[in-house]
UniProtKB/TrEMBL annotation:
InterPro entries named in the record: FAH (IPR051121), Fumarylacetoacetase-like_C (IPR011234), Fumarylacetoacetase_C_sf (IPR036663)
Family indicated by similarity: Belongs to the FAH family.
A Pfam family: FAA_hydrolase
Keywords: Hydrolase, Metal-binding
Recorded GO MF terms: hydrolase activity
Named cofactor requirement(s): Mg(2+)
Superkingdom to which the source organism belongs: Bacteria
Organism: Azohydromonas lata
Name of this chain's protein: Fumarylacetoacetate hydrolase family protein
Domain annotation Fumarylacetoacetase-like C-terminal: ranges: 79-283
Length: 286
């Protein structure tokens, strides 16, 4: 299934399941959950109710004109992984890491599909990073790697927009990775059963104004999804709705000669085959 979070006609968060290319079933209008956050907390019982609602297919609405929300509205944790492709580590002048490099992104730092990414007025070094997101569906701590994928509800897309000069002022990247509205998440959550295990073997691309600037395959990750779930769960319990933002490949603007930064008026697209396409325009702050 493909879940889409959106604003309904009453400007309230709602949750739908996409059917075909141009419509969705409004779960809330059929008595179902209003958010993926709520559904994931319900576990398998909630998913069974959703399957029944999809079979009934009573309340449908077109995707045209839909006001998207991020698939998960308020994740307890959004753990992002740095340097998770060998070629990106090399272009960033780092050796490939021997252990996942983990930092936090906060909810205020991203927008939904179609909403503008905001370049702050304190910097012009606004970079793109195309990434796969794994969304946790089943809680766990000290999860063995061989059981880790059973804890993943599904996958989505992320643009880990980065303010590079702020990111690199210190050894801690958090500030440059968390400017308000600098990243994007969406447009859908694709359940894990629709993709290869661990979403491995899928083509990943980033396009800026239609030009391909990043291209790789998810099989190229140094630490795959199962490893990331297992390792992160050693430090903290993973909960339904938590995000693992799995890292970007080479081709980022900072490493190019000349450097390439996102500018107001640009459009950035992140696409992973079978997962979807995340598109956002770029605007200046204020």
């Amino acid at each position: 299934m493909r879940f889409i979070a959106f604003l309904n006609d009453q400007d309230q968060p709602a949750l739908g399941v996409r059917v075909g290319a141009d419509a969705l079933i409004d779960l809330g209008a059929d008595g179902g959950p209003a958010s993926l956050d709520e559904l994931l907390r319900q576990g398998e019982a909630g998913m069974q109710a959703v399957r029944a609602a999809v079979e009934r297919g009573i309340v449908r609405r077109p995707l045209a004109g839909l006001r998207y929300l991020p698939p998960v509205l308020n994740p307890g944790k959004a753990l992002a992984i740095g340097l998770n492709y060998v070629d990106h580590a090399a272009e960033s002048s780092f050796d490939p890491p021997k252990h996942p490099v983990v930092f936090q992104r906060y909810r205020s730092s991203w927008v939904a599909h179609g909403q503008p990414l905001v370049r702050p007025h304190v910097s012009t070094q606004f970079d793109y990073e195309a990434e796969l997101v794994a969304v946790i569906g089943k809680a766990g701590r000290y999860i063995p790697r061989e059981q880790a994928l059973a804890h993943v509800a599904g996958y989505s897309l992320f643009n880990d927009g980065s303010i590079r000069d702020y990111q690199l002022r210190t050894n801690q990247w958090l500030l440059g990775k968390n400017f308000d509205d600098s990243g994007a998440f969406g447009p859908e959550l694709v359940t894990a059963d629709e993709l290869p295990p661990g979403a491995k073997g899928l083509r990943l691309q980033c396009r800026l104004n239609g030009q391909t600037v990043q291209e790789a395959n998810t099989r190229d990750m140094i630490f795959d999804v199962a490893t990331l779930v297992s390792v992160c769960s050693q430090a903290m319990a993973l909960e339904p709705g938590d995000l693992l933002i799995t890292g970007t490949p080479s081709g980022v603007g900072m490493a190019r000669k000349p450097q390439l930064w996102m500018q107001p008026g640009d459009v950035c697209e992140v696409e992973i085959e079978r997962v979807g396409l995340l598109r956002n325009p770029i605007v200046d702050e204020g």
